[in-house]
Amino acid sequence: MLIPINELPPEGARFCLDDQSLWMLPIADFGMACTISKPLAASVTVIPSEEGCLVRGRLTGAVVVPCNRCAEDTPVSLAADFEEFESLPPAAGQGGGGDSGEESRIVMRDDLPVLDLGAICWEEFLLALPFAPLCRVDCKGVCPTCGANLNNGGCACSPAEPDPRLAALRNLKIR
Ligand SMILES: [Zn+2]
Ligand SMILES: [Zn+2]
Q1: Range of the domain at 175
Q2: Ligand 1 centroid, distance to 134 Cα (angstroms)
Q3: 106 and 28 inside one domain
Q4: What is the reported pLDDT for 98?
Q5: Is 110 found in the same domain as 39?
Q6: How far is the CA of 144 from the centre of ligand 2 (A)?
Q7: CA dist 137 to 64, 77, 151, 153, Å?
């Protein structure tokens, strides 16, 4: 979704990115294990300025991702606010190098600045995803030997681990 910045009114304009293909296509492209369970939507206000534009928005929806320990389906509800300033790219012809390294989401099209709002919302989506999602806080993960999901009880090769609280009690008794 490309927004021509110079066509925005000075007070800014509001955009709603709720076309699910906007999210589903990159999820598929990147081969991400992520299923949309509640439609994803970004409601974004873009306010132009002389140096670029302010992008302020809110991302909502829900996805299902694999648990970081046992790989079972883990629902993740998203409600992320974001705000960032996108600077105009350095003027063409000022000799390539010397930029800050931060890639601007504003590109020049026919000498006019255009904001790649879809790319910004995708980045915010990735930031909103938990780094290590867990199906439950005390997920026991899988047995390293046979791969059994230890949340469903022990497995044949590894006897169920003793409850650490009981172990602590046993230590107390020994002393
Ligand atoms: Zn788990
Ligand atoms: Zn096992």
Answers
A1: 141-175
A2: 5
A3: yes
A4: 46
A5: yes
A6: 7
A7: 16, 15, 12, 16
